[in-house]
Design brief:
This protein is an alpha/beta fold. It has helices at 48-59, 89-92, 97-105, 114-120, 165-169, 171-177, 179-197, 227-230, 241-244, and strands spanning 12-17, 21-27, 38-41, 67-72, 75-77, 80-83, 109-113, 128-134, 138-144, 147-148, 158-160, 163-164, 201-205, 220-222. The radius of gyration is 17 Å and the shape is globular. The two termini are 30 Å apart.
């Protein structure tokens, strides 16, 4: 493999870890995928070793890259996992996944919460922008003039009759309640989140965002799910160095 720097700037291996699937692609210096994302099912049980092995297999066919960005479904602080509700929290607690990937792949790696990475790929960088992702669970991120706010794991907060947002509008709820009832639940959740955050705009991503039907409030819009990968380019923005620096 040719390890010479790309003439237009560094290439980024961008990885999106989900409770259902692992996805990856390589981004050019402008943050555009050089080829369609590859994906495999998330191994079960999703232990750190199993997920790491899955990622190594997933990225093997991809072309060269100079650095690695990871979106992770849980609380991440300085490259270390604090919680991973949809992967098995106790198994992941304290795991330095960014450092493990860096060691195995020989490139520097940075990692943030997956909803934060998705948001970095779609926000305008003006005002208070909120991002939720609808997938296995519900991801949440908040940005103030483009800068990520301290992460809140809203998905684990009770929302309705003791059920968390994950339990009430996650993928299992979509399957059990049906699309019509699930849509009504998501709209209620949007109202609660607006009361909580007083956002200027709400951006909705994730694999189940396409299941939303009907009109949404004027300051709410659906964004491409690919941003979970393309947002990885922003992890290397110098303005975010203090946010994403590994321990």
């Amino acid at each position: 493999m040719n390890d010479a720097p790309h003439k237009g700037g560094p290439l980024t291996l961008a990885i999106d870890i989900g409770g259902t699937r692992l996805k990856a692609s390589v981004l050019d210096p402008e943050g555009v995928m050089t080829e369609p994302a590859l994906r495999i099912d998330t191994p079960q049980p999703a232990t750190p070793d199993a997920v790491l092995d899955g990622l190594l297999t997933l990225v093997q066919p991809l072309g060269r890259y100079d650095r690695i960005s990871v979106g992770f479904p849980g609380v991440v602080r300085h490259g270390r996992v604090l919680t991973a509700p949809n992967l098995g929290t106790e198994a992941w607690r304290g795991c330095s996944l960014a450092a493990m990937l860096s060691q195995r792949l020989g490139k520097p790696a940075r990692m943030l919460n997956d909803a934060t990475v998705q948001g970095l790929g779609v926000i305008a960088g003006r005002g208070l922008e909120c991002v939720i992702t609808l997938g296995t669970g519900m991801g949440f991120a908040l940005f103030d003039d483009g800068r990520p706010a301290p992460h809140l794991e809203l998905s684990q907060h009770p929302s309705h009759r003791g059920k968390t947002y994950d339990e009430w509008i996650g993928n299992a709820a979509l399957k059990s309640a049906g699309a019509k009832r699930w849509n009504k639940r998501v709209r209620k959740a949007i109202g609660w989140i607006e009361t909580l955050a007083n956002y200027d705009v709400l951006l909705i991503g994730g694999g189940n965002a396409k299941r939303l039907t009907g009109d949404l409030p004027p300051n709410v819009r659906i964004v491409p799910n690919e941003a979970g990968i393309t947002g990885g380019i922003r992890l290397w923005d110098p303005a975010l160095d203090a946010v994403v620096a590994n321990a």
